[in-house]
Amino acid sequence: MKEPFVNELARDRSGTGPAVDPADPTGPSTGSTDPTDVFVAHRNLLFTVAYEMLGSAADAEDVLQETWLRWIEVDPEQVRDRRAYLVRITTRQALNRLRTASRRREAYVGQWLPEPLLTAPDVAEDVELAESVSMAMMLVLETLSPTERAVFVLREAFGVGYDEIATAVDKTPAAVRQIAHRARRHVDARRPRRVVSPSEARTALESFRRALETRDLQGLLDVLAPDVVLVSDGGGVKQAALRPVVGAGKVARFYLGGSAKAGFVVTGEPTSVNGDPALALHLDGVFDGVMALRVEDGRITGLYYVRNPEKLTRVTAETPLTLR
Description:
Blueprint: H1 5-14, H2 35-41, H3 43-54, H4 57-71, H5 82-105, H6 121-125, H7 127-133, H8 135-141, H9 146-157, H10 162-169, H11 173-190, H12 198-214, H13 217-223, E1 224-233, E2 245-246, H14 248-262, E3 266-273, E4 276-283, E5 286-296, E6 299-306, H15 313-317
Parallel strand pairs: 1-6
Antiparallel strand pairs: 1-2, 3-4, 4-5, 5-6
Helix pairs in contact: 3-4, 3-5, 4-5, 5-10, 9-11, 10-11, 12-13
């Protein structure tokens, strides 16, 4: 598979891995006015903005390429705040794609889940960042209008000022404040409750993996919250539940009954997806999909299983991402 554009660009300039220091979300300070240096310095931030708006890494990469093509037509020396300028271009391009994607998703077969991203351990340690890209939060963001989503992501996830957001979405600052308030209220009403620490999440993940592999019904019921919700995405290509499965008993029977009926041996490899603990699941040794878990009070309250092959190419081909 062709390596993503932004990573190619970074490697061309540095010959190594990520060009952004995770401790500095705006990227390394540089006095360079070379367009490529400036773009690479902010590429992780731009990717995260686009991904949080779109829920698709492939679309986010396309947005970054469109941003780059517009950026190289600009003289960096004439731009006072290059980070803000790049975020503005990225937001506008992402908004255009988001409006088109919203129409596509109306015809999507079954449940839609974001394209999963393998994330580096430090993402899970950053509570705010992990929540902003988690499967649960991404699904909440799907319920916002495109403009509400852009405003919410820029304001709440990245702390962008109202004036700057107004320029990016072609609204007045007063209108942006109203949109931000409305979006925040909408999200707060649906925002998942506080999650547990990474160590507690890993413990729940291991209990779930062990019960799944050994077909231990009681073990599954012990680790699943009574009101756990399973959302699975096959994209019409692979079999998946067309609606969310709710309740520990139903979820346990759905998995144990399905694998037993098909005669598969199920194995799971622990990983991290979108800042959540996750399992890369294999059926008879063949990679089948990625299941992200949401853990609250030591028990699993959400399971997000992506089986759609079109959404799994990055998971099988790339190393974990350090976002922002």
